[in-house]
Amino acid sequence: xxxxxxxxxxxxxxxxxxxxxxxxxxxxxxxxxxxxxxxxxxxxxxxxxxxxxxxxxxxxxxxxxxxxxxxxxxxxxxxxxxxxxxxxxxxxxxxxxxxxxxxxxxxxxxxxxxxxxxxxxxxxxxxxxxxxxxxxxxxxxxxxxxxxxxxxxxxxxxxxxxxxxxxxxxxxxxxxxxxxxxxxxxxxxxxxxxxxxxxxxxxxxxxxxxxxxxxxxxxxxxxxxxxxxxxxxxxxxxxxxxxxxxxxxxxxxxxxxxxxxxxxxxxxxxxxxxxxxxxxxxxxxxxxxxxxxxxxxxxxxxxxxxxxxxxxxxxxxxxxxxxxxxxxxxxxxxxxxxxxxxxxxxxxxxxxxxxxxxxxxxxxx
Length: 365
Fold this sequence. Notes:
Blueprint: E1 4-7, H1 10-23, H2 33-36, E2 48-57, E3 68-76, E4 80-92, E5 104-113, E6 116-121, E7 127-131, E8 134-135, E9 140-146, E10 166-167, E11 171-172, E12 175-176, H3 179-182, E13 185-186, H4 192-196, E14 205-209, E15 216-221, E16 224-229, H5 231-244, H6 253-259, E17 263-269, E18 276-280, E19 287-295, E20 306-327, E21 351-357
Antiparallel strand pairs: 1-2, 2-21, 3-4, 3-18, 4-17, 4-20, 5-16, 5-19, 6-7, 8-18, 9-13, 9-17, 10-11, 11-12, 14-15, 19-20
């Protein structure tokens, strides 16, 4: 039988006693006596308690309802390759928007901050950062799609015990998700080459204005996933529908999410390797911003000028991570009776370690 022995030495008991005195009020009470009773068990320097530990494989885990999500891939030398993709509903910053006439989209920018720590700032205001929760140093390929699968908040099952759940293996609590629906329509990027060999950068983002000779820094941003998307798709999807119809699709969140069912970010590892980054989608600075200009229709305009405007789409409603695991080995089913020589810990559809303390309450003296 493989057991782990824990010996409680005098120093440990002394530390526990000191802690109990600090934490208690003036009236002395035995820690835990009100819950278990004073005679439930006692600790002394001669007691050794047997613990059985074993591996318990996990099925897919729920991944919707979290503020942060993973994107990318990581090849762990023990377990193997894990690839993380992401899907989210989007919300308009302004519903029933009036874009005016002569609309031209200048740019469309997707930005999601990494988890980072500011290390220092120089005299010119430039900062250096350290990225948190980034695993691996390889490249991945990132692709953006208009999701065609409706991310329902309500569980339609007759035996539903709460909202619909989305799991790490791209399934829901009432069925599987068709991958072809997630990859419904490709959303092109301005610089696809950089996305074909992508990995997170710890460099701050510097935004400038003006021409080559008169550039001026207007903003400095913490490191983020920042991608310029091509404008034609967004003009057809958002601008033209408002100008050509009464646009009921844009009047509220529910209508918009039935029309534009969300953004799917697909990760593909390069050379069986990659980088896995944790990003914060639950913030106003995580968004897609459409920068556009329109004709100035004010009465006092002597001639037709142009006015710059923005429309922001935020990551709202349902968000979920989907993981693809290529394990180096099959995680074994643990032996609850005798314990395991090795314990395997792996998140997602992986495994946990189970500790059977005191073998049901018996102690070996």
